[in-house]
Write a structure and sequence with these properties.
Blueprint lengths: L2 H15 L20 E2 L6 H4 L4 E2 L3 E6 L5 H14 L4 E5 L4 H9 L5 H6 L3 E5 L14 H15 L3 E5 L2 H4 L5 H17 L3 E7 L13 H4 L3 E10 L2 E11 L9 E6 L3 E4 L15 E2 L4 H6 L4 E2 L3 E6 L5 H14 L4 E5 L4 H10 L4 H6 L3 E5 L7 H15 L3 E5 L1 H5 L4 H18 L2 E7 L9 H6 L5 E10 L2 E11 L9 E6 L2 E7 L3 E2 L7 E2 L2
Parallel strand pairs: 3-7, 3-8, 4-5, 4-6, 6-7, 14-18, 14-19, 15-16, 15-17, 17-18
Antiparallel strand pairs: 1-2, 8-9, 9-10, 10-11, 12-13, 19-20, 20-21, 21-22, 23-24
Helix pairs in contact: 6-8, 14-16
Length: 516
Amino acid sequence: MTAQDAEDVMDRHEAGGGPSTPRALGSDGHERGSSVRKLPTGIPGFDHVAMGGLPARRATVVAGQAGSAKTVFCGQFLAEGVRLGQPGVFVTLEEPAADLRENLATLGFDVTSWEEADDWRFVDASPLSTSAGSAPYSLETLTAQIGHAVDATGAQRLVLDSLNGVLGLHEDVVVARQLLRALIANLRAMGLTVVLTVETPGDPGGSLSRYGIEEFVADNVVLLRNVREQAFRRRTVEVLKMRGAMHHKGDVPFTVLPGQGIVVLPIGKPDHDPGALGQRVSTGNAGIDDLTHGGLFRGSSTLVSGPTGTGKTLMALQFAVAGVASGERVLLMAYEETRAQLERIGAAWGYDLGAYEEQGLLRIVSLYPEVASLDDHLVEIRQHVARFSPTRLVIDSLSALERLGSTASYRSFVIGLTSYVKQVGLASFLTSSAPHLVGGTSVTESHISGLIDAIIVLRYVEVDSALKRGILVLKMRGSGHEQRICELIITEGDMEVGEPFTGLAGILTGQAVSRG
């Protein structure tokens, strides 16, 4: 297949098969006189990070350790091409095509049907596909096989997974690099957008391989990481470089979901009416509404922090029920209380949570934190929001999730959560437990206080040998608020905000002393 033939194929299939004007390629295979065009990958969230997808007709190296989802990335990239009318070729250099076909089916990809329609073709160059005693395949032979598959399908996208097995056949690094450069040049001449995977022995942030692929061959480099943090592994993706094209910098978390594949969790921009951010919503408690000078803001995140028994869950239920009373849908994610426990607590205060669910205004999701990683929990929250379309979100409690990972991964989770709340315009109410019954500060407060719009602190206060509860609006972004510490009175069936503590100092330490 010549370079001109490839141009004709590209013209026939570009933009779903419509006609287009042929574009000249430079000696390096890049388009002349035009900006970098990008192809969507079909990976949720990744195209936001890559600002449009992968540059067309260029080579992208996807590097990572074993189990970092490189092959899944490739499968989604080709599947998106099929959806857009851009056939693809999957060159497998390690895993047999039959195994890949079966594995990709678990992601919901009907590869067999696509093969029958000549929208997808495998080039099986895996060691298990070669007959015993045959000579190792060469890159020249591989190029010919690829050219035949491209001719048969009119492919625009191509994946090589993985290069390690082929390059390992060549002890001479210089020769291996030259052969690889020749292969990539031939693929570019065919008008293909190429993804090559490389398995790294350690963190892909260092040198990807001893052949210098990222430096001498690839236009773009995407790093997939799969780092163990406590009981779970945390996956992140980084666009290390994208020659001649803009992209977002830094690690972005992602997860792999059954039946879907990779889901990247970038920080998005609000997609609702910006004016909605100024709307107030009631907390369900008149006294707390007064403390916040009118209630909370829609599109904001409020954190209520305090030790056990100070009223956090009750306040969360009041916020939820206030939404139900005004005809709003409310999603309650419970990570410390079971559904039965929440229903009993609600019943004690006159709330029939089961009835609210039957009305379609409340959805309770009760989960054990340890069943998934932080990123998986974030994806699940987003999925429930997408399915239920609530206007209020309650999470009880963040501190239950905090123990699942490192401080950095927890901050990343909260950043993703709070940005998503703003993006979709939710009013969110989050609780966290302080480690001490009296005094002290919550680890959650210190680690994420800058990410939260409003913080309400609940504390036990010892006054004249009596233990009382105190409430303070520590912070409220974009609004004035009561700055004095008030007494919080919880009686059977009621929660009231009392008068401010006067003539006392050291209240938040748990041991108030008289100023006089």
